[in-house]
Write a structure and sequence with these properties.
Blueprint: E1 10-14, H1 17-26, E2 34-36, E3 39-43, E4 49-54, E5 64-69, H2 73-82, E6 87-88, E7 96-98, E8 101-103, E9 109-114, E10 120-124, H3 136-141, E11 155-158, E12 163-170, E13 173-180, H4 186-189, H5 191-194, E14 203-209, E15 211-216, E16 221-225, E17 229-232, E18 236-241, E19 246-250
Parallel strand pairs: 1-4, 5-10
Antiparallel strand pairs: 2-3, 3-4, 6-9, 7-8, 8-9, 9-10, 11-12, 12-13, 13-19, 14-17, 14-19, 15-16, 15-18
Length: 260
């Protein structure tokens, strides 16, 4: 009830968005999955997101802005230190320091550092039995392979009506499975979410069921059927044909049908 089924994202302020972009890329190995006039949106392989936005008020908070959970803090600290990250030390009760890593007793370990904008970020390896479902084999393979079944998406984005987009994000790769029910039309079911006159997303994917007609802004019209591999440039409307749902796997959905 209320917010228990909502998705939560962190918002990290930056006084200089380009300086922040370089820090997150060069120091942390993070690159934005999408950009908008307000800032940069990042995805992680665990399905979480955070937004870096430009504001003159960045770096004024003396508390942790965002926390990254990792399997083992020690190696991550070593890797970040090698990239030039400097760690913070705090004289707080219950912390047992070993270099830049603070022991938290039964709660694991943590380390803190500041980004280029002065924000305090934390990494920790505390486990939560309710959410830490990775096996030892998952962790061993994690650096080279990530797997998520589309039937268990990181995110489901409902349209205004007539369907949804299920989204899996692995690193900087995003795949969506769109289920477009009979009666679906972009201009009535997605335009209220996107806030644009026509769809401004570039789609690349494959249709696996049903039929859909795409109408480009220049008047070009083309029907897509099951088995068709598609590339659709920005600037179009679309609608489902017939009484069968159209199902389309799409790699161009990082921002598609995402509420703004």
């Amino acid at each position: 009830m209320l917010l228990q089924d909502s998705q939560v994202t962190a918002n990290i302020p930056a006084r200089d968005i380009e300086r922040a972009r370089r820090f997150y890329a060069d120091k942390l190995g993070l690159r934005p999955a999408e950009e908008d006039p307000g800032g940069l949106l990042y995805h992680t392989t665990r399905g979480t997101t955070f937004h870096v936005y430009e504001t003159e008020h960045a770096g004024k908070s003396e508390h942790t802005i965002a926390q990254f959970k990792v399997p083992d803090v020690g190696p991550v600290v070593s890797d970040l230190r090698a990239q030039g990250v400097t760690f913070e030390h705090y004289d707080l009760p219950g912390l047992a320091w070993d270099g830049d890593v603070a022991g938290l007793g039964d709660a694991g370990h943590a380390a803190w550092f500041r980004d280029s904008e002065g924000n305090i970020l934390c990494i920790d390896d505390a486990t939560d039995d309710a959410t830490d479902n990775d096996t030892d084999e998952d962790r061993r393979l994690g650096a080279s392979i990530a797997v998520r079944n589309i039937a268990d998406p990181h995110e489901t984005r409902p349209f205004a009506a007539h369907g949804r987009m299920d989204v899996v994000t692995l690193g900087d790769f995003t795949l969506g499975m769109g289920t477009f029910e009979p009666g679906w039309r972009w201009s009535t079911d997605v335009r209220p979410i996107a806030g644009t006159d026509t769809c401004q997303v570039r789609h690349t994917g494959v249709c696996v069921a049903g039929r859909m007609t795409v109408l480009m802004d220049d008047g070009t019209e083309r029907q897509i059927c099951a088995g068709d591999v598609v590339l659709i440039e920005p600037g179009h409307d679309a609608w489902v044909d017939g009484d069968e749902a159209c199902v389309l796997y799409d790699t161009g959905v990082a921002a598609y049908a995402r509420p703004r």
